[in-house]
Amino acid sequence: MADVEQNAAGNGSDAVNGTAGRFVSSAEGIALAYGSLLLMALLPIFFGALKSVGCSKSKVNSLSYDLQSLIQSNSIFMIKFFFLITPPPIFSQEYINLLLSMYFFVLGVLALSHTMSPFMCRVFPANVPNKQYQLLFTQGSGESKEEIVNYEFDTKDLICLGISSVVGVWYVLKKHWIANNLFGLAFALNGVELLHLNNVSTGCILLGGLFVYDVFWVFGTNVMVTVAKSFEAPIKLVFPQDLLEKGLDARNFAMLGLGDIVIPGIFIALLLRFDVSLKKNTRTYFYTSFLAYIFGLGLTIFIMHTFKHAQPALLYLVPACVGFPVLLALFKGELTEMFR
């Protein structure tokens, strides 16, 4: 998972503590950047968790999204292998950046379209005809004909796709931080909504493993910083610390990896579904874990700012998001039921 960092050179590079020729941001600008990162992290977790409760996924949809997640994870591994681990690099950085831009353009447009769809349903004018369309691919003929793809959509979906495509072109051409954040928020929201853990034990094992992974790759090697420095992709949220001084052309960014949002987020969403399963009309575990996430991320930012060094956010988020709800369950006598 990507770590919380300060960036002195732009959206595509993570120059932690890069002081040479660096513009010194004001205290207000730094506070605005950190506060905005915190807010942007909380939004997809909160709304993604709420949407996950009512998200009834078919096996096909679940498999499709799991496959997409697997492809995305493997692409990050291949980046590390080809560019960082193998000397000399098999592929140049320019070609990999071009491949990543096209890859995340497609994924980002689809994710942003899915995110915009509920909002479009509310604002779509009633007097405008909403035509229905169907995209159908079949294999074979006659009685042996088999459906490969059967996707239904309407005019509202096409409008969402068009707007998302404009954002995608903006991102590919300019790599602007606002376009990056729109794609990043869409990825995070869809991840929390659609990636479901089946029980708390699985969630604890997952978070525990990624806790070790995050700490090792940040403190044990320079891979995380190098990947973020070398490749341009909307796999992090960024916010300029010099926005008050330089406006939208600001280039001194603080950043937060999407993994530090999605991984704790799917565990928090699981606890919300556990609250619902208790049928007590309360959201105790959800709000406890949500507040724990705020505490953990705030602690991460504080330590990073104090020591001027990139921090593995899961080092602080995992103990907070797991520990507080477990202690609450132990206090309420519901620990066995939680892990059951």
UniProtKB/TrEMBL annotation:
One matching Pfam family: Peptidase_A22B
GO cellular component, as recorded: cytoplasmic side of endoplasmic reticulum membrane; lumenal side of endoplasmic reticulum membrane
Membrane topology: Multi-pass membrane protein
InterPro entries reported for this sequence: Peptidase_A22B_SPP, Preselin/SPP
One of the GO BP terms on file: membrane protein proteolysis
UniProt keyword terms in alphabetical order: Endoplasmic reticulum, Hydrolase, Membrane, Transmembrane, Transmembrane helix
MF term (GO), any: aspartic endopeptidase activity, intramembrane cleaving
Location of the protein in the cell: Endoplasmic reticulum membrane; Membrane
Superkingdom of origin organism: Eukaryota
Transmembrane segments: 31-50, 62-83, 95-112, 200-219, 253-272, 284-307, 313-331
Main location (coarse class): endoplasmic reticulum
UniProt KW Transmembrane keyword: yes
Family to which this protein belongs: Belongs to the peptidase A22B family.
The name this protein goes by in its record: Histocompatibility (minor) 13
Source organism of this protein record: Sinocyclocheilus rhinocerous
